[in-house]
Write a structure and sequence with these properties.
82% of the residues lie in helices and 0% in strands. The protein is an all-alpha fold and 398 residues long. It is globular. The longest helix has 33 residues, at 127-159. The chain has a single domain (11-397), classed as Growth Hormone, Chain: A (Up-down Bundle).
Length: 398
């Protein structure tokens, strides 16, 4: 057995952990119809593989944050990866929809890689530098969903839908080896007990700045989840896109996200974090609003739909690094708990936005409804960003 490293992990390790967490959510989305046909189940039931996964991930994050503050980031991440591998094997072998869904939601354990990578960065760096590095990691978060649906669509067309989950098994094993060798512990001031850590949650509950940052995160990412929930159905029913073409189109939002994270990395030391957050919300609100107006005017085309999604991705790339760093800076001693709780709220919101959008985009006005959902969530995120500014000014005045 190789010697356990004691040094902080390299950034590339955190990038890979985050990328696998994101891939597990969206790589197989172009195969939803094929999974339904293969397991002889309704499409709506198969879509629980998204909403159920998100719901379980939300619960896990509430637990993972305090556990990582107690026992460390490393063992929680390694444990999550092992569960992810076993669950992926279960998905490959499943012949019944309920068995498949059971193992699918177990895959949610891999979310530890994304949540605790943020906490690790905050362990090692001050907020402004943490925001810059989260922007770098965010580029991987963008690249993974940009390439994931394309790869998933190709694997489906060549080998069948189960090939996606075989790929997850291989990725999980490789990631365990990398994390074992490189993922040194960064939580150098662990909590006394698990109960004591949970008792710290009320301090976050009473902090309005924490809730403002969390609302900004929930409704910013909400636009992305609304797109995930509605784009597969709109692409198939309104535009007749094949799984491979749908995968390319769904990667559009991730392309914008990558650009936004790149700009954050370049601008973080020259522009205040709050200004980047607000700028991101403006892009994410008005981009899909223009696309919705164009579609209402009669120019309904996949290019218009996915162009609106690009602006949501761009806005999120400008917003999320600073908002994630900010929510963990409310109380640095509770960085893991704050990351877990805000992440749980974000994923729970995502489960709601995904399911709600999927339920309402099936009609003739599906493209407009999808754009409208993205506008609404992004606009609420903009309001939360403005509230952050107000609360921080009041805090500085005191």
């Amino acid at each position: 057995m190789p010697q356990i490293t004691r040094s902080p992990p390299r950034l590339v390790t955190l990038v890979l952990l985050t990328g696998l967490s994101v891939l597990s959510l969206n790589m197989f989305l172009p195969s939803l119809r094929q999974i339904a046909d293969g397991l002889q189940a309704d499409y709506a039931l198969v879509s629980l593989s998204i909403g159920g996964y998100l719901a379980v991930s939300a619960v896990l994050q509430i637990i993972m944050g305090p556990i990582s503050d107690l026992v460390g980031r490393r063992p929680v991440i390694l444990g999550g990866l092992v569960i992810f591998i076993l669950a992926s094997v279960g998905c490959v072998l499943a012949t019944d929809i309920w068995v498949f869904l059971g193992f699918r939601v177990m895959q949610g354990a891999v979310i530890s890689g994304m949540v605790l990578s943020r906490a690790i960065i905050r362990d090692m760096h001050e907020p402004s530098e943490a925001a810059r590095l989260m922007g770098v990691v965010g580029m991987a978060m963008a690249l993974a969903p940009l390439l994931g649906p394309v790869l998933g669509g190709i694997l489906d067309e060549v080998f069948g839908w189960r090939a996606n989950f075989v790929a997850f098994v291989v990725m999980g094993v490789v990631m365990v080896v990398i994390a074992w060798r490189d993922l040194g512990e960064t939580n150098l001031s662990p909590s006394a007990t698990f109960t004591a850590q949970f008792r710290a949650y009320p301090a976050l509950f009473k902090n309005m700045l924490f809730w403002a940052y969390s609302a900004c995160l929930v409704f910013s990412v909400g636009g992305f989840y609304a797109f995930l929930g509605g784009a597969p159905q709109v692409g198939e029913t309104a535009y007749g896109l094949t799984p491979a073409l749908l995968g390319v189109g769904m990667g559009s939002i991730s392309g914008g996200f990558m650009l936004g994270n790149y700009l954050t990395g370049r601008l973080a030391h020259r522009v205040t974090t709050l200004r980047l957050i607000i700028a991101g919300r403006l892009f994410a609100t008005f981009g899909p609003l223009v696309a919705m107006a164009v579609i209402w005017a009669g120019w309904s085309h996949p290019v218009v739909l996915f162009s609106g999604a690009i602006f949501v991705g761009l806005g999120n790339g400008l917003t999320l690094p600073g908002a994630n760093a900010g929510v963990m800076s409310v109380d640095p001693k509770l960085a893991g708990s704050a990351s877990g709780l805000s992440g749980a709220l974000t994923v729970a919101g995502g489960a709601v936005f995904t399911s709600a959008t999927a339920a309402f985009v099936g009609g003739a006005n599906g493209p407009q409804v999808l754009m409208g959902a993205m506008v609404l969530t992004s606009a609420v995120g903009l309001g939360a960003a403005l509230l952050i500014g107000k609360l921080e000014r009041a805090q500085h005045a005191v």
